[in-house]
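Aim 2 progress update. The chain analyzed this quarter is reproduced below.
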Amino acid sequence: MINQMNDDDDENIYALDTPAFNTSSSSAAVAEDNEKLKAFIIRLKTQLDEEKSNSKQAAEYGLSLLEDSKKLQSRIYELEGEIETYKAELETTNLVS
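Predicted structure tokens:
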């Protein structure tokens, strides 16, 4: 499992909870270590899939925000144009009066 560590850790902001391995070289110990590694790999793959999903979701949200920002900026330009038109009409009206 990946755990976030303190910001003071300059080497790596994430630490892996790696399984403890046997020091014995018996076939039972090796088999147990293999099972621990398989389980560890499954956990890592699951976390990787979750992080990919989170990254994709964040990217989609970011793109949506950019699109909204473009629309809002376009609307601002339209409104600024209308303001200039109304100012010109007001000046013309004031000059005629």
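Residues 34 and 94 are 88 Å apart (CA to CA). Residues 2-96 form one domain. These observations will guide the mutagenesis experiments scheduled for the next reporting period.
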